[in-house]
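ligand=zinc ion
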Amino acid sequence: MQRVLVLDKNKTPLMPCHSARARQLLTRGKAAVYRRYPFTIILKERDGGDAQPVTFKVDPGSKTTGIALVADFKRGKRVIWAGEITHRGQQIRDKLLSRRQVRHSRRSRKTRYRPPRFLNRHCAEGKLAPSLQSRIETILTWVGRLRRWSSISSLSMEFVRFDTQLMQNAEISGVEYQQGELAGYQVREYLLEKWGRECAYCGVDNTPFEIDHIIPKSRGGSNRVSNLTLACHECNQRKGSQTAAEFGHPNIQQQAKQPLKDAAAVNATRWALWRRMDTLGLPLEVGTGGRTKFNRRKQNYPKAHWVDAACVGESGEQVYIKPSHAPLQIKAMGNQSRQMCSVDKYGFPRTRAKHGRVHFGFQTGDIISVIVTKGTKYGMYVGRVSVRASGSFNITTPTGTVQGIGYRYCTPIHKSDGYLYEKGEALSSATTRVAVSSRQIQ
Ligand SMILES: [Zn+2]
């Protein structure tokens, strides 16, 4: 169960409380709802209070980022609040691409005699692409928000997926990496990613894989990552003490030598995120992705981004998650379009320049409740509104879009803040789903 975030009368965050307690405070009139998403209450009289240490934990991903608040109680660590942020990186990329195309076509129509410019673009050292930057900004927005509404005393983040440096160089790594329990996890994760989760020899997927030495150890092959690949049991058996080339796959030896490019890009974003998190002035713990998975497997939790967040790093070794706990799904929607005038596919203006975006006190993205008492739209709806200057709004509900609802019927629940919220799937239902698929994969 998600805990309810609590503020005292001066808006100082207190320890998040149980939802039953929050309900009690609300019905007795001792508290008021401060925010709907995440659910936060503000106490009317209380000033200050005690708080247990709470850690904000994050598992940054390219599409979805898991976040979790883990409290350190006397009886152990426990997830008290969790969420999954869906980023809009792809959306940003697509929008920038379409803008570039419109400008390109306009340029070639308007300046036919100008020679094309060449190599005239520079960007600062270490600048990230806007789609990547937005992921970092979104995560930092949520660190900031949750710090304002709950008493966070430390941070913990998954730093890199694969610590490639430590995997390759035995000299700098120490015993834990090359021989410890964790070593296998690091390497295995890396290989799964690198070889696309399929057998390098026959291409079969959805089977338990074995780590195969391209040049067998019996023939002097090393344990380095560049000598390892994934193979299904049959291929591994048939290959025996042959090298990959002798087995009829000379290209694999070449492929193995190339490092995983993706890992570098993912790691670059994480470095940038780490630098920003480090400036927040709270103790910051880091852990690798291999360790996260190791912790999660050891505690028998299913794969979910928010569960991964809770299992990050050394502090993720023993974390209790209630089976009925369901995270808040947070989807980044963007605030508004900066484009003043939308264009058709030829680059011609399609609409007039925009006027204001607030109409009758509502703006697109607000979550509202609607009670229509008469006519064909009779009923009660809760959802996200798209406003029109005419006052006839559309409401997107989980079951579909209802068009043409008059503004008079609408009551605001949550003002637009650039995110869409939904209740996520509980841990226990994720468990049953994963149990079916995990039998097939590993
Ligand atoms: Zn195979």
